[in-house]
Structures are given as C-alpha cells and as structure tokens.
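Q: What would this complex look like in 3D?
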Amino acid sequence: KDQKVIAIDGPAGAGKSTVAKKVAEKLNYIYIDTGAMYRAVTIKALNQGVALSDVDAIVKLAENTDIKFVYDEKGNQRVIMDGQDVSEAIRTPLVTNNVSEVAAIPGVRHAMVKLQREMAANQGTVMDGRDIASYVLPNADFKFFLTASPEIRAARRQKDLFAQGFEVSLEQLTREIIERDRKDSQREMAPLTRVPEAELIDTSNITADQVVDLIISRVLEGD
Ligand code: C5P
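A: Here is my prediction, written as structure tokens for the whole assembly.
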C-alpha cells in the first residue's frame, strides 16, 4: 500500500499531538490520538463513580466504550465517547492526574489497542502515544520519539491549562509531569519507551512547525 503509517511516541508535553495533527493534515492522513482514548475511559469511570482500583469493573467499562474521532464543520477533530463529545472534558486536571492509573490496566490496554489497530488499517495514519512503535504498530513505516525537558513540558501544559481557565503553578505541573512519566514508564504492560530505530527529536528549542517539517521530509525521503 502507498499509504504509510507514522508512529510518534514520547512523554507528556513533548508536543506530540500538535505535531501529529499537522503532519496528518499535510499528508491527508488520519490522526489518532491514543491518549484521548485512555482519557475517555478515565472520565467515564470517574463520572460513573467506579473506583479506579476496581480493575475488573474498569476493564468491563473499557470494553463497552465506543470511541470515535470525527471532524466538526470547522475541520477540528473531536473525540466522541458513547455518542457524546468529550473533547474538552477529557483535558481537565482531574482526568490528567488519574489517567495513568487506568492506562496501566492490561485489560484496558487490550481493548484500546484493538480499536487503535482497526483505525489504522487500510489508510495513511499518524498515531501518537506512548507505545505506538513498541507495541501497537511495530511495523510502522516511520517512528519518531519526541522529548523535551520537564520544565519546558510543564510550561507548555501551563499554557494549555491557562487557556482552559485553570491556573496551576509551574512547580506543581513539573512535579505532576515527572510523576506521570514515571508511572507511564514503569508500568508492566507496554510502558513508555523509545525503540532503538525511532528517531529522537528534542523539541525543547525548536518550534512545532520545525518538527513537522523534519518529519515530512523523512517521509518524502523514504518514498
Ligand atoms: O498523551 P496524553 O497526555 O493525552 O496521554 C494521557 C495518558 O494516557 C498518558 O499519561 C498515559 O498514561 C496514557 N497513554 C498510554 N498509552 C498511549 C497513550 C496514552 O498509556 N499510547
């Protein structure tokens, strides 16, 4: 097939989703935000009052959750969970600070990975997450690992949160981001990791557009 698959992994705040979205737009590929899927399961559990420690109940809930990505009339991608638009609701600090616990549950990952592989089949795809190159799509045509210093990642998160009306200190956000990376890297199943063949891109001192151009040039070179 001439439609390629591009995997973009990395820790929180490395710029993955901004970059992945733009790369997908330029190539006319679909963009799959796997973090949004774990966030959707998390918000559903929180809304239903299911204890996150009740692993069996959370797995059952994940297996019975319908998640879709659709485009609105302005061309913005929206996250639809069980028919409801949760695009903004999944970005609150409450969800962010609980998602890693839910994402560590193997049964939850099995359910999400099944959906992710189905979404990527038969079309040009940009998928971002933590385990895309290492686990979800090990045969991806292009693999990138984005990173940046914790302070810079926390500053990006602060800007996003401020735009949503949340004011959180840089110290607190840096602590939270380091803690989330620790949980994501140390979990048993499909942890955050860089496969040796993934190209490492430090986004600390370059713009998202520069990262996009680099990735696009690799894809064009590879053709
Ligand atoms: O990318 P984002 O910050 O939205 O991801 C939210 C959380 O979802 C991560 O901190 C991680 O716990 C989980 N996640 C994951 N595997 C992925 C993508 C996200 O475990 N492929």
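A: To summarize the key features: The CA atoms of residues 100 and 184 lie 6 Å apart. The chain has a mean pLDDT of 96.
Q: Very helpful, thank you.
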